[in-house]
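Teaching assistant's notes for section 4

Start the section by putting this record on the projector. Ask students to predict, before seeing the second block, whether Phosphoribosylglycinamide formyltransferase will look compact or extended. Collect guesses on the board.
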Amino acid sequence: MRRKLPIGVLVSGSGSNLQSIIDSIEQGRLDAEIKVVISNIHDAFALKRAQNHSIPTLVISHENFETREAFDEAIVRALKSNRIELVVMAGFMRIITHVLLDAYPGKIMNIHPALLPSFPGMHAQRQAVDYGAKFSGCTVHFVDSGVDSGPIIIQAVVPVLDDDTEETLSARILKEEHRIYPQAIQYFASGRIRLNNRRVMIAEGQCEMSTALHNPGLSGF
Ligand code: GAR
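Reveal the predicted structure now:
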């Protein structure tokens, strides 16, 4: 049997990305085991999703801590006591500090609903629509001390259509989030990720991606 990477998932909301990770594990495509799901929001639906699959959950409310560092210390304690090797932020709406970063250097991933470095921060989908971007997408990246600025592991591109709203674009992006996040974790679990400065290289089996995308489509050019 292949070794399963022990992961901890940090959530704040609906947890659809958590669900895609759970499903990928149950389908045998992702060699990981979710040891704990931690939420800073006590009624996050993500907790219910974890409990439905008998995954241990923990609520650590940021409101109970005076500083971001103290909150992160509590998270680190929970992760360490579960012997977590990769921290997966899945819709976790808190900025983390050096306390968490130093405890898991190069071992924290996040998913962001835009093609970074475009549209970091909050409301990334709305930013893309308002800006008039023709493409947006999603990015899984390692977390560093900046906001959505760490080394990029994988991205998916979707078109922004003329009649898109924040909601329709978010739905199109979310479908791709559910594909690339389990893939990024599997790259890590199978030991295929190499970091060259801030360029993430995937050893073996990377599909060639050479096709250019155009939106609107080209007519004969
Ligand atoms: C996802 O779209 C994720 O990319 C985004 O929150 C949503 C969580 O959905 N994360 C961020 O914006 C982080 N800056 P989920 O709870 O259903 O996985």
